[in-house]
């Protein structure tokens, strides 16, 4: 069972490595710890162009804690959650005793710590799901801001008033007339 769990974890982490999205126009590494205090995930609004999938991060973290964080590009967080899950799994297996009864059937017996460890595993899984979704939201909010800044920097539209003098022909004694208006400037 442990080998299957370990192989599944490694396969999901390999999948996460190949599915790593890169936000368009990102010039620096997008790290959660740099932006977690700048954005409030409660204010997040999903957009079709978001590079990180909250659903995928949450589901994979539910199946195996830490994989959702790895999909979001937070490998350190993902390894921490995965290591905690594997540690609790190994620890719970140490609280199961196996014996054969009088009829020769294999029986298993668990102690009270076994149940406490499984409650801790459930809590770690819920924490991992919530954290993976939060990381995806924060990183998406950062990517949305980058796109807005990129669009603002790429095209600039200004309306400015102007006042000048223009040639009047012979209608004005000085030869020029005052003129006022609005100028439109589009820079890209």
Explain what the structure shows.
The protein has helices at about 1-20, 30-35, 55-65, 65-70, 75-95, 110-155; strands at about 95-100, 105-110, 155-165, 175-185. The chain is an alpha+beta fold and about 190 residues long. Helix 3 packs antiparallel against helix 6 and helix 5 (about 75-95) packs antiparallel against helix 6. The protein is rod-shaped and about 125 Å long. About 20% of the residues are buried.
Distance between the termini: 59 Å
H/E element sequence: HHHHHEEHEE
Strand content: 15-25%
Inertia-based shape: rod-shaped
Query: What count of helical segments does DSSP give?
Result: 6
Number of strands: 4
- Tell me, rounded to a whole number, the average pLDDT: 80
Give me the secondary-structure category. alpha+beta
Work out the count of structural domains. 2
Largest sheet: 2 strands, antiparallel
Return Rg in Å.
30 Å
Give the % helix: 40-55%
Order of strands across the biggest sheet? 1-2
Low-confidence stretches: 22-27
Essential attributes:
2 domains, 18% strand, 4 strands, 52% helix, two-stranded antiparallel ribbon, alpha+beta
Compact description:
The protein has 6 helices and 4 strands. The strands form 2 sheets. A two-stranded antiparallel ribbon has the order 1-2. It has a two-stranded antiparallel ribbon with strand order 3-4.
Helix/strand layout:
Layout: H1 2-18, H2 32-35, H3 54-63, H4 67-71, H5 75-93, E1 96-100, E2 106-110, H6 112-154, E3 156-167, E4 176-187
Antiparallel strand pairs: 1-2, 3-4
Helix pairs in contact: 3-6, 5-6
């Amino acid at each position: 069972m442990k080998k299957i769990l370990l192989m599944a974890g490694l396969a999901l982490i390999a999948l996460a490595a190949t599915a790593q999205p890169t936000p368009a126009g990102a010039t620096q590494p997008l790290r959660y710890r740099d932006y977690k205090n700048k954005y409030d995930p409660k204010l997040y609004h999903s957009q079709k162009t978001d590079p990180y999938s909250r659903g995928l991060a949450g589901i994979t973290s539910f199946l195996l804690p830490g994989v959702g964080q790895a999909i979001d590009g937070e490998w350190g967080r993902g390894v921490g959650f995965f290591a905690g899950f594997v540690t609790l799994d190994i620890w719970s297996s140490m609280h199961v005793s196996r014996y054969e009864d009088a009829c020769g059937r294999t029986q298993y017996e668990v102690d009270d710590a076994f149940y406490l460890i499984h409650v801790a595993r459930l809590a770690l899984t819920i924490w991992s799901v919530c954290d993976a979704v939060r990381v995806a939201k924060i990183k998406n909010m950062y990517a949305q801001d980058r796109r807005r800044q990129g669009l603002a920097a790429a095209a600039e539209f200004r309306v400015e008033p102007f006042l000048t003098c223009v040639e009047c022909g012979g209608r004005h004694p000085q030869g020029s007339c005052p003129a006022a208006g609005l100028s439109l400037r589009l820079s890209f």
